[in-house]
Design goal:
single chain, AAA domain-containing protein, globular, AAA_dom, 11 helices, 252 residues, alpha/beta, 18% strand
Length: 252
Amino acid sequence: MRKIVSIHSYRGGTGKSNLTANLATAVALTGKRVGVVDTDIQSPGIHVLFGLDDKQITRAVNDYLYDQCEIQDVAYHVSPPEVTRAGGHLYLVPASMKSADIARVLKEGYDVEKLNAGFDQLLESLDLDFLFIDTHPGMNEETLLSIAISDSLILILRPDRQDYLGTAITIEVARKLGVPNLLLAVNKVLASMDQAALRKDVERSFAAEIGAVLLLSEDMLRLGSTGIFSLKFPDHQFTRAVAELATKLVRG
């Protein structure tokens, strides 16, 4: 069964794109065919994590939205050797980094229904098992419609009061939209914090399951988005937590 997974956060700076890239890679390492779409069109950037230079991106999701190509023509094969050896495939549909394209989106908007139809096209044309959607932070029409068609929603939050308040609103909306599977990922947790107590407090507060608790990592800060963290640090706590979350989705 093909699945659409949205990765979302109420606020920026939560590590959403990093988690999306690493989680998609972890699922592909199980032998699955996986796609990732950058729908953070106003502030794109996930392509950097997959090693795509701006100059390599000759077409972007923006071109599909403005009827210049089919969405499968924007899919770049970005499978690292580890994924290929595992029998998986990883594709990325990036958003444009060109200032003119971003300005057009901000000024004119785009057809959200066309974007959602593109998700089905990708699943079919690339024969994907999973499609991950890297959303724009916050609550807007585009994000809500993408969440509404998702099989799973992963909400990222930090142990921060503002994140808690925003996440509560997002969860309420997601439940009204009828999202079948909701998981929380608590990111940038200090190693000194009581993880068991944090998990219990968050799950009780939101009446939702925590899929992963991810510690604040100096190693990730040093890496600086120059690659997929879990491939460079296979024994790291972050990598193990992401792998467990990937297992939940695959078995889910």
